[in-house]
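Suppose you are handed only these lines of text.
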Amino acid sequence: MKIRDILKESKKAFPSLEIVPPMKGITNAELVESVRPFMEFSPKYINVTCHRDEYEFRQEPGGTFSRHLVRNKVSEVAVCGALMSAYRIDVVPHMICGGSTADEIDSKLSDLKFMGIENIMALRGDCIVGEKRFVPTEGGYRYANELVEAICAFEKGSDIFSIGVGGYPEKHFEAPNIETDIENLKKKVDAGADYIITQMFFDNRVFYDYVDKCRAAGITVPVIPGLKPLTTARQVSLLPESFSIDIPVELTSEIRAAGDNREFVYQIGTDWCIAQCRDLLAHGVPAVHFYTMGKAGNIVRILRECF
Ligand code: FAD
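From them, the structure of the protein bound to flavin-adenine dinucleotide can be written out as follows.
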């Protein structure tokens, strides 16, 4: 079923789950088991992230090094296939501009259609490790709005896929200001995106302000908040660095007070996420998206307490 229809028909807010493909070497059965704890909540669909190939340096005889592009993770399409066949569930593979030409994207769309997949999360992707800025692939797409256009135009615009796109309540790190970023977000919606999933945030006021700004800019599609429970004290500095987001002082103080007590830090992160989720639900969000990072324990507790 298309997410656009799920969003239209759903009478109650629901959890939306995102997993990251595991490293190569995992078996199909292991992957399926890793997702089983979420099935208790009958998720309507599962998002599966996609990742650029990475450079690996190999030492050659003679001591020189050669650079190779390698994929260390199972592909998102393979993961989607495994989940569909094990759980008869809808899946949302993520698709990025980076690393593919327009023709290659077209082939990927044909494969997804062949598999009976009706949904795609369309993203630009980040730069490859070792590059400073995102470099579009020659013959590919520079911005996510171009990818959305291509997906909509696939098979002469016969509406095969419902499309989600990313939004940044605290602004995308490359955008000069939030207003420009929202103008660019609108380009994705005008190109045919059906809904927006946000980057993680830890202060709900930031999300509510963002939705107000989106509405004022003429964006009318559903905006689904993205949450990630903090799990370790290190994430207090890692998450802002990786995702260009703020962590509220109240949360950092609690984490600092927990000191070396890892279990307590984990509990603080989970409790904070539960409070965020309850407040979002009370504010009438259509769904709450969880960045599970493949870890079920904390997410299962949050879902039990909130849904
Ligand atoms: P875009 O919408 O293209 O925006 C990128 C930047 O360019 C922004 O600063 C924007 O303001 C600007 N911009 C956009 N359009 C234009 C335009 N037409 N003209 C000028 N400027 C423009 N990454 C992965 O690699 N794999 C994933 O699976 C993945 N999943 C994600 C899921 C979610 C919900 C989110 C929020 C992000 C995800 N990302 C993923 C990260 C994402 O790829 C990066 O944040 C990336 O840097 C931007 O992607 P985007 O689609 O938002 O880009």
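What can we learn from it? The radius of gyration is 20 Å. The longest helix spans residues 262-282.
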